[in-house]
Design brief:
- The termini are far apart.
- The protein contains 4 helices and 3 strands; from the N terminus they run H-H-H-E-E-H-E.
- The chain has a domain at 53-128: 2-Layer Sandwich (Alpha-Beta Plaits), CATH 3.30.70.
- By secondary structure, the protein is an alpha+beta fold.
- The chain is rod-shaped and about 100 Å long.
- It comes from Halobacillus litoralis.
- This is Sporulation protein.
Length: 129
């Protein structure tokens, strides 16, 4: 009788340690995966524009895209157009009249990468005029 009672008490004591088990995941943990740390139900997505403020927004993104493209030597930005998650950057490149198609594509890739590093939430399209 005493061993059975001790066995029951031991089993009940082990059951309370389950929540501290390192691999334990609760239903709330699973439901909240991917949500930000603020008390909101919005997803963290670097490509979404939903918290516009003084430090960033459409105007600031347009200016950052322009600045990033113009940092490349010989590049002058003529126009930056933004629509939803797309951004079109039209540029002049020094010596563009004498460029081959491969050189133009290389310049477009370099400019696109520079703009993407500045504003990664957009699909970048570069046009050399």
């Amino acid at each position: 009788m005493i061993p059975a009672t001790l066995l029951c008490l031991f089993a009940a004591g082990c059951g309370t340690q389950v929540e501290k088990y390192q691999g334990q995941t609760s239903r709330d943990d699973v439901e909240n995966m991917g949500l930000n740390n603020e008390v909101t139900m919005e997803d963290e997505n670097p490509r979404s524009v939903n918290k516009v403020g003084h430090t960033w927004g459409l105007k600031q993104d347009r200016e950052m895209a322009k600045t990033a493209a113009q940092q490349l030597e010989g590049v002058t930005v003529k126009r930056v157009i933004m629509e939803a998650d797309q951004i079109w950057v039209t540029v002049d490149v020094a010596g563009e009249d004498d460029m081959s198609d491969e050189e133009r594509d290389e310049w477009k890739e370099q400019i696109g990468q520079a703009v993407y590093k500045a504003v990664p939430r957009y699909d970048i399209h570069v046009k050399i005029k």
